[in-house]
Specification:
This protein is an alpha/beta fold. The strands form three sheets. It has a six-stranded mixed sheet with strand order 6-7-8-3-9-10, sandwiched between helices. A hairpin with a 2-residue loop joins strand 4 and strand 5.
């Protein structure tokens, strides 16, 4: 369980907080999609959860322990994959030999399996700095999940991946989910992850706009593609799309539709109070 209580964070030299009085709880064993506009603090929140930044006020607990204490048991339970990363000028074999001992549940078999998902030879001998940006990210993410930490934080993980790499990423995450692992993925590339998510978390800098399971979202909202102007006029949110209009409507129980994350995000951003009213109904 991740518990965030009245969290505030302001970068030095800035007057306005990046995150202000944010509170929420995230139960374990799910894949969360963390969404928000640029500048609302998504990356900052991941680093705060990992204990790599210190909040101005409030606290973050993972399994009841303040992550900012950076206890060895906590750091061995959390792995963060940053959007941009630099790997040392050493081989994968040496990288694993140096870093794997910090993670007691590290599995060489899992590492090889993940690398093969990305079509990377686990036996490669050349230096990591010789890899392209996309290949470096694939190697690092493979190592991250091979550490088998209960909490994995991923910031824009599909940036730099080509189309086959994004397809492999979805297989990679799907094969790594279990009831004891929590994965939080922050991204703008919502189409890359929408089929993977158990929960959707949408934030702005001062509040949680939505924190709900995909099952609950499907029960309360209907996502339709229509050319009917009357349906579009009744929608909570609608936008033009190829061949018609993509719309979000309250679900009266007669719809069973797939979630459109782009429309859901725009609805949460533009009409947060109405969305909150829908989800607060018993």
């Amino acid at each position: 369980m991740i518990t965030i209580d009245n969290l505030t964070f302001t970068y030095p030299g800035r007057h306005n907080p990046t995150i202000g009085n944010l509170s929420l709880q995230l139960p374990e064993g799910s894949v969360y999609g963390l969404l928000g506009r640029n500048g609302v603090g998504k990356s900052t929140l991941l680093y705060l959860i990992a204990g790599l930044l210190t909040p101005n006020t409030g606290r973050i607990e993972f399994d009841g322990i303040d992550t900012r204490r950076r206890l060895p048991s906590t750091t061995a339970s959390i792995f963060i994959v940053p959007e941009e990363l630099t790997l040392p000028e050493i081989s994968l074999r040496d990288y694993v030999a140096i870093n794997a001992p910090f993670y007691p549940n590290f599995s060489h078999d899992d590492l090889h399996r993940h690398l093969e998902t990305f079509e990377i030879d686990p036996r490669m001998r050349y230096k990591l700095t010789n890899l392209s940006m996309g290949q470096r990210k694939k190697v690092f993410m493979s190592f991250a999940l091979a550490c088998n930490t209960p909490l994995v934080l991923m910031d824009e993980p599909t940036n730099g991946l080509d189309i086959p790499g994004k397809l492999a990423f979805r297989r990679f995450i799907a094969s790594s989910v279990n009831e004891n692992r929590t994965i939080i993925i922050s991204t703008h590339q919502v189409r890359d992850i929408e089929t993977l998510l158990d929960n959707v978390l949408i934030i702005d800098s001062e509040r949680v706009l939505l924190n709900a399971s995909t099952a609950e979202i499907g029960r309360r909202l209907a996502f339709v593609h229509t050319s009917d102007a009357e349906v579009a006029a009744r929608a909570l949110y609608a936008q033009p799309s190829v061949g018609g209009i993509s719309a979000v409507l309250p679900n009266d129980g007669s719809f069973d539709t797939e979630i459109n994350l782009e429309c859901l995000f725009e609805l949460a951003s533009t009409r947060p109070d109405e969305l909150a009213e829908i989800f607060n109904k018993q």
